[in-house]
Every structure is written in C-alpha cells, then in structure tokens.
Design a protein that fits this description.
The protein has two domains: 2-76, Glutaredoxin; 87-202, Glutathione S-transferase Yfyf (Class Pi), Chain A, domain 2. The protein is built from eight helices and four strands, in the order βαβαββαααααα. By secondary structure, it is of the alpha+beta class. The protein is globular. The two termini are 29 Å apart. Helix 1 packs parallel to helix 3, helix 4 (87-114) runs antiparallel to helix 5 and helix 4 (87-114) packs parallel to helix 6. The chain binds glutathione.
Length: 208
C-alpha cells in the first residue's frame, strides 16, 4: 500500500492526501516533520535528501516534491480528467501548479509564515509587507482568471491544478491582519471546492 511520510497538518502533505481521497487511493500515513519524527536523520535524508515532507513510497519507489508526487500518482492511476494526456491541457495545468510552487509560495512566506506565524527569518517587516502585497495581487489575478474562464482553473473540469490552488485559497481566507479585498470569483471558487469531501477533509478543514 502507498505510504505517505508527513504530518497531516502540512500544507504540502495535504495536497497528496487530497489527491488520494479524490481518486480513492488507499494509503498509510506516518507522522514526520515539525512536532513529530525529525526529517533530518540519515534514514529520512536517504529517502528525501532535502529533508522535507511529503515523501511517498509506492511499492518501494520513493517520491518527493508534492506537485511531482500528485502528477505521478494521477498519471499512474489513469486519472485523466484530473491530469489529461493532451499535452496542451497538461501544460496549462502544470503552469498553474508551477506558479503556486514558486511565485505564490514565495508571497505566502511573507504573508503567512512571517506575518501570521511570526517565524524567523520571514518575519522581517519589509518581507511581510511585500508578501502581503504580492499575494493580494496574485489573488486579484486569480479572480480575473476565474471570472473569465472558471469555475475551475481549467474551466468546467476540476483538475490537478485546483489542488495546490485550493490550499492557497484556503490559506488566503485564513489570513489575519491583512486587508483582503472582495474577490467574488475567488470566493465562489472556495465554496465550489468545499462541495468536495476530500477538500473538506484536507483543504478547508480548519487549518490555515
Ligand atoms: N517544495 C516542497 C516543499 C515541502 C515543504 O516545504 N514541506 C514542509 C511542510 S509543508 C516541511 O517539510 N517542513 C519541515 C517540517 O515539517 O519539519 C514540496 O512541495 O513538497
């Protein structure tokens, strides 16, 4: 059975848990990461040299990086609506995933890790202000995209791109101390995703 190493409250582990529930893939999970078993031991680093969760073991095959993991599992299990074989559609899905993994994650370091959790080194005043500003601009862009092309990122179908973005949107609405403009298409997207049991279990589940 698929083994997921990582705490269930981790932003990136939650993407894998959501995908597994979404496609009905059974798994076992072991708690690793902050507050649980350490990820800097030689044993864990042999599995994931960057010492982060999630790390997933599929019949002896070890995977790391949440987006690469969910793409691999969706392809392996023939989830072709979530991750189509058509290369143009696939490219559009991966583009949104990469945007979240790089640009939006960077903004959230300031807005969330620094501004909300007050974690060093992200709690630098300038970095927090910049993260809030960038994240707000990114949510505006998302709002415009969804209003014109929604209700999901790729239009009518829920795809793999909506998994990282669903986590981002949940975090956006969980942020305190931020001036949050009303973005109606983002709000509707949040409600639409909430209809999915797997999102309620791992995305909009009370955690930021
Ligand atoms: N790019 C990586 C980022 C993974 C990451 O940042 N994981 C965090 C949890 S969300 C982590 O391992 N933090 C250290 C810890 O929990 O001990 C991915 O997408 O998998």
């Amino acid at each position: 059975m698929l083994k997921i190493l990582g705490r269930a409250n981790s932003f990136n582990v939650r993407k894998v848990l959501w995908l597994c529930d979404e496609i009905g893939l059974p798994f076992e999970r072991e708690d690793y990461g902050r507050g649980f078993r350490p990820t800097n031991t030689p044993e864990f680093l042999k599995l994931n040299p960057v010492g982060q969760v999630p790390c997933v073991i599929d019949d002896g095959f070890v995977m790391r990086e949440s987006h690469a993991i969910i793409r691999c599992l969706a392809a392996k299990h023939g989830a072709t609506t979530l991750y189509p074989t058509d290369l143009k559609r696939r490219q559009a899905i991966e583009a949104w995933m990469d945007w979240v993994a790089y640009d939006v994650t960077h903004s959230m370091r300031g807005a969330f890790l620094g501004g909300q959790l007050k974690e060093a080194p992200w709690n630098n005043e300038w970095f927090v202000a910049q993260g809030r500003k960038d994240l707000t601009a990114q949510m505006k862009l998302l709002d415009e995209h969804l209003a014109a092309n929604g209700p999901y990122l790729l239009g009518g179908d829920f795809t793999l791109a909506d998994i990282p973005m669903g986590l981002v949107v949940n975090r956006w609405f969980s942020l305190a101390n931020i001036e949050r403009p009303a973005y109606p298409a983002v709000a509707s997207y949040y409600e639409l995703l909430t209809e999915r049991p797997a999102y309620r279990a791992h995305g909009r589940n009370g955690l930021p």
